[in-house]
Every structure is written in C-alpha cells, then in structure tokens.
Amino acid sequence: MNLSPDDWSAIRLTLELATLTTILLLLVGTPIAWWLARTGSRWKGPIGAIVALPIVLPPTVLGFYLLVAMGPDGPVGHLTQSLGLGLLPFTFPGLVVASVFYSLPFVVQPVQNAFEAIGERPLEAAATLRAGPWNCFFTVALPLARPGFITGTILGFAHTIGEFGVVLMIGGNIPEQTRVVSMQIYNHVEALEYGQAHGLAGGLLVFSFCVLLVLYSFGGGRRLWK
Amino acid sequence: MEMSEGIAARFRVNFGAFNLDTDLRLPGTGVTALFGPSGSGKTTLLRCFAGLQRAARGHLTINGDCWHDDSRKFYLPTHRRPLGYVFQEASLFSRLSVQRNLEFGMKRVPATERRVAWGQAIELLGIGHLLERMPSGLSGGERQRVGIARALLTSPRLLLLDEPLASLDLARKQEILPYLERLHDELSIPIVYVSHSPDEVARLADHIVVLDQGKVLADGPLAETLARLDLPIRLGEDAGVVLEGTLAERDLQWSLARVDVGVGVGGESLWVRDTGTPVGHRVRLRILARDVSIALQRFDSSIVNSLPATVLDQGEDNHPALVLMRLQVVKEIVLARLTRRSAAHLGLSVGQQVWVQIKAVALL
To answer: How high is the ipTM of this complex?
Structure first.
C-alpha cells in the first residue's frame, strides 16, 4: 500500500484534529454530562436535545449554520474579529470548534449515563465523610464513571476522525490546514485514483471496526444508545 | 432560650402529600431511637440532621453547635457537619479496599480533631482481619461493621444510624447488635438510631421518639415512655416496659441469674434465665404487660419473681374487657394487663399496696 506524502499529511492532520477535539470534548462535555445527569431543571430536556442534535442532523446542516455563525456577519465571527483572532472558517481552529459540536453527543451521552448509574448514594456517603462537592466529584464520581469516560473518549475520537460533511462546509480542502483523511479520500475518488482511495478508506474501515470491537467486547457499546 | 447541652431539632419538610413537622429536644448523650412504621418520616428526619435533606424550615443545634438556623439563613452543608452516618446498606466505595474506605473520612479530618483512634474503631467493630479485602468480598454484616467504623473514624460529634440492621437476616442482626451495644457503652458520642424493630429499640435506646405520618407521637426516656398509659407504645406484639439493671449473681445450680434493678438503696432483684452474661454487666430486661399479674397478698406459687408494688393508675387497653395497670415497683414502673372484671374483683385503687407476679422476664 503506497501512501503519498499528501496522504500522510492528511493522516497526521486528522489525528491532531481528533486528539485536540477529544481533549476539548472531555473538558466541555464532562460538566454538561454532570449537569444533565443530576439536574431537576426544566432545561434538562431542551439542553439534552440540543446536545444530541448532531446525531440526527445531516452534517451539512450543522456545518452550514456553523459557517454562517462563524462567518464575517455571524455572532461568533463578530466575536473572534473583535478579539483580533480573525475568522474561523477554513482554518484548523475553526475545524476544531466545529468538530467539538459535531462529536459532543458521543462524549456527553456515555458519560451522562455513567454519572446517572452512580446514583446519589455514593456521593451522599462521601459528603457524610467530609468530602466537599468538588472533592466528591473527583474522588468518587470520576472513578466510578470511568467506563463511561473510556467509551466517550473512544467514540468522540473515532467520530471526529470520520467526519466529512462538516469539514466540507466549513473547512474546505486546504492542504496542511483542513484537508483531513476523509477529504483526501474524496479527492482521490474525484481524480479516479481508486488505488490511493483504497489505501486510506481501507485504513479507516479497519480502524473503525477495531474501535467498535474494543467497545463491544468490553460491554460499553451495548449501553451506548440507552 | 437556647439549651447549650443536648440536641434541639426543629424541622418542617413538605413533599406533596407528606409533611414532616418536628420540634424535639433530645439528650446530648446516649442512644435516641427514632421509632415508627415505614413512611412515618424517620429517615427523612435523620437526613435533616445530616443535611442530606434540606428542610424548608429548620433549626438544629448539637450540644451547643448550630448546624442549621433558617431564621438567620444559616445552613451548614453535610460535609462541614462533624457527623457520622451509616446507611441501610453500608454504601462502601466499591472500588476501594476496606482499609481505604476507612481512611476516606478519617484523612479528611484534621489530625488535631481526631478523637477516635484507628485501633479503637477497628477493635470496637472487630474488623482487623478485613482490612485488605474489597467490599464485594464481605458479608452483609461485615460490610455494615466497616460502614460503622468508617463513620466513627471521622470522630463525629453525632452518629446517625439509618436502620443499619434492616438489610440483614436474623443471624447477621444478632452478630451486629453486640457491636452496637459496645458503641453505646464505650463511646460518649450521642447516637440517633432509626429503627422500626422493637427488639433493637428495647436493646439499644435510652431515649425514644415515636413518629407517625411525620408527627411526633411521643418522646422521652425509654422506660418512662414505654410505661405511658395514655399512649401505650407497642414494642412488637404487646405493651410492656424495659428495665435496666446489673447482673448481680449467677446461680449455676438452677441456671438462673439475678439482676438488680434500680441502683442503690431499695433496689429490687429479678431472676432470669442464665444466658452466660458475666456478673457485673449492665443488662436490659423486657417485661410485657401480659406477663404481669396482680395479687393482694404474697403466696407460694411457681412464679419466681414476686415483688411488692403500688398501684399508680389504670388505663384503657385494646379491648373493652381489658385494662392496663401502671404499678410502681420500688423505683421502676411496670405495666400489667388484667381483665376489667379482675380489677373490680380485687378492688384495686390508686395507691394500694399489692404484689406483682412476673411470669416472664426477657433478658435482652
């Protein structure tokens, strides 16, 4: 299997994107999952639905609205411009922001399920043993929710690697910047380079299968869509 | 006017149809039992003590320390309250060994505030051989003992036990009760103990709060409250009293033991079956009203325990044919059940000197 330097560059970029996105997803998704798992607020339904939207929404729709929001006349665009950051579309940071939205439910849902499965009791027990709320969270909730975090991390990472529609809408096809593996496959097919396309597509196929195999073998996958 | 000693607890909680409304003064030492049927609000009340349930209106002081006072918007969160809490199921941290479960609370208490020593808690609950184990490898009774030790190791100023025996079978209960009695005898920490089990209350409690549908029906010292005629509290199937005494003598020939009830001059003695309790131990006796009969004179009979008594008063029982009679035996009070006809036939009146014959005394 012969991969061109461009292919390797796309692979490296994809892994960077997925890694960075997964780290951000864990930082952003964990508080959201914690809140969704424990709140009695009437906003739980609407917020939960918004987080889950990317599961059912065509990526082009999500990408379109992100493009509009981050564009020169969008609210996010205004913000980034006033902060002197320029515009996010067609940049790597823009792709990271879009990927976080796109993969959010794949991290939030398993982590939320894991938090819900803990129940009140261990946290109450910890509180009676002098552990404050943050202490409870880090010493009791996080360790008990570890299976959910493993599932969420794997899924968030894998799902980001597989994204295409959102990248197409807001990232374009800029080498070294936004040309990820899925774009590169598209380029190869457009150019009728089927052999090259096979190299990357086959690699993604094997990667995805292995990820799911790990998840389902350890029992995390079955609870995923609870 | 605030008492600095003892526990003052006033709570109002509304959960839709259920309302808890209490205003209690409890002793600052010994075991207070919260007793009542399920749904009576015992656990809710205990959770208010712990701050796990926030009462809409509440005021709580523990031996001079205020934990909750809504009149000045003061509310100490659970983790800032120096308490120990034992749940119905031990709720040990499943991923931590017994040792690390025990350390969890202890290491969060500053060393200068630790009053319960590691070795003392381990020894008191008999769990020294379990330290390396994981909670999943313990029996229900062992888990509960670890849970109690874990709570003790935070050196609590109040120990709250929520039916710690409810999830255990009879044999396990019997295994744990002696440990709880040791807590009572050897520690000076006030204990609030939720139970719907008459046996546990009779064995452990010094003070009792009887709850029903969120209201306090009665509260007071155990012996006194059990002997109330206006509200005979049935510990189990029958009205009766619990007396405390000292095991004074064992008669090995007849397998009997003598318990001196009431301290000092004028104490009385009762003979019970010898259960092997060593001489000098504090013991509790339960005497049910149906096992006590009244005679005008002393006469020879097969009944071992026959004591002089004074008729105090008489009250209704659960059938029109029966009355409950309250009698003073030296310093103690016992209840006797007899038919209304017998009472009339004997011509019993308040202040009259009689003999009570006690057919059965249970050593608890």
So the answer is: 0.80
